[in-house]
Structure formats: structure tokens, C-alpha cells
Amino acid sequence: QWGLHTKWLGKEIVHHDRISSTQTTAIEYAQEGCDHGTVIVANRQSNGRGRLSRQWYSDNDQGIWLSVVLRPDISPMKAPQLTLVTATVLAEVIEQISQTTPAIKWPNDLLLNNRKLAGILTEMQAEQDKIHYLVIGIGINVNQSYQEMDLSVREIATSLQIETGKTFHQTTFIQLLLECLERRYQQYLDEGFHLIKASWEQYAYKMNKEVTYQTGKAKQKGFIRGIAEDGALLMETESGRIDSLYSAEIDWFSS
Ligand code: BT5
Q: Where are the domains of the chain?
């Protein structure tokens, strides 16, 4: 059915019509010891999840909703790099399929025309220096019309069909996505993070632009200069110092 040209990613693909969340199911599979590279896909999710218990609206069969179980032999400290690998892959595949260039909004959103097209949710179980499993959830709005977008995100979200007027073949999309993810993941393990970093920075939203952000109490301004090896966002402050942001309130949409 999937016609995948991969070595290990998606050797097992579990496909559901409608489940609560591919992420929750993938974590259950991971806990039961499923193989590295197992993929859970659903046509629709009744309870899709974002980060920090936020909702991910996906109770329609017009998007790509899937989760990948990985068992990387890397330090848990490096896990954020895999979110950045995934974001880069999404940008590349979306660009290839739709001929539009999305922007990666640090750390895990993809935008088109300033609206959210896709999101990534990375969750892991690790102890000390070993990752037991890492589950990467990917949600992409593909063929929804404006009316089919959930009311609560209609003004901040978008789909490839809304942006291009075209519809896209979802199986082909998933194939390309998994093939590209396997290739980039392998490259990341073999050659390190620098190639991903360079590619990520090419797609980075507001790269070299000034934004207002808040860490702790003080609001300040800075220029986005890229990402660090550990996944931090690099911000050049007004005094010329480079700050590494691990979490921050960034005011992305004011100029
Ligand atoms: C994310 O969280 O962006 C991660 C989304 C991951 C979804 C995938 S789908 C497959 C797998 N199974 C799951 O259950 N989840 C993963 P976060 O950065 O916290 O963004 C959540 C916010 O995005 C919400 O608070 C809304 O504002 C917005 N949002 C919700 N649904 C959306 C949608 N369909 N399109 C665009 N934005 C949406």
C-alpha cells in the first residue's frame, strides 16, 4: 500500500481510520517494545495533542497525522536536535510537493503566509544517558478548505489547499516524508548536526530580523541569528551579545 523505499522507517506502519491520538498510541507501542521506525498513521484523530496539553485539531481526514517511534543511540540532551531534523524535513518535503516555501518558526511550527501549516510534538522516555524511545508526532494541514478548518484556529492556521488551491495525494506525501526523514536522520547520525543546522537556518522564520521577546520579567529586542547545536535559538541582543534561548515568549508577529 505504501510503496516505501526505506530501509527501516515505516517497515511497520499501523494505520487507523479514527483514533484518539497517534501520539498516545505510538507511546503505547513503544512501551510494549515495538521496533525502531514503527509508524502510526490515522485518517483522523478525535483528541490530537499539541505541546503543554494544548489541542491539535485533526478530526478530519484532510491532513497528515502520524507518529514515528525512534530508538536513537544518542544522549537525551540531544533529543531537541531531532525535532529540528524533523522540522527541516517537513519544510523540504512541503516545498517539493507544493512548490511553496514554508518557514520554520522555532522550535516546532511550520508557517505559510504567517499562518500555522504544521506542528511537531516530540516526547521521549529516557534515563541518565539513554533514550528508551522517542516519539515524534507530525501534523500537517493538507487538503482542508477554509470552512473545514476548526473554527478556533481558522484565523491562525492554514492548509496547503488554502494556500495553493490544489489538492495533494496523501499517500505520496507520507511516502516522501518518511523517505526524506530516514535519509536526513541517517545523515544526522553519520555526519552530525551541522548540515541540518544550515538547512534549518535557510527556512527559519524571521532569520536576521528583529523581534521582541521575554525571558523572565524583562522584555527586550533582538535579532534572530540561528540555532545552536543543542537546539537553542540564538538571539543577538541590542548590546551585541548572543543569547541562547531555550524557552522564551517571542512576539513573532509584530514587526
Ligand atoms: C504542536 O503543538 O504544534 C504539535 C502538533 C502535533 C500534532 C501531531 S498530529 C499526529 C500526532 N498525534 C497527536 O496527538 N499529536 C501529533 P503546539 O506547538 O503546542 O501547538 C498547538 C497550537 O496549535 C494550538 O494551541 C492551536 O493554537 C494550534 N492548532 C491546533 N490545531 C491546529 C491545526 N490543525 N492547524 C494549525 N494550528 C493548530
A: 13-203, 210-251
Residue nearest to atom 15 of ligand 1 (CA): 49
Closest CA to 175 of 29, 25, 39, 17: 39
Q: Is 159 close to ligand 1, i.e. is its CB under 6 Å away? A: no
pLDDT tens figures, 235-254: 999 999 999 998 878 999 87
Assess: ipTM above 0.95: yes
Residue 166 near ligand 1, beta carbon < 6 Å:
no
The CATH number of 210-251 is: 2.30.30.100
Q: In degrees rounded to 5, what are phi and psi of residue 252?
A: -70, -30
Which fold, 13-203?
BirA Bifunctional Protein; domain 2 (3.30.930)
Check: CB of residue 198 under 8 Å from CB of residue 102. no
Confirm or reject: Cβ of 67 under 6 Å from ligand 1: yes
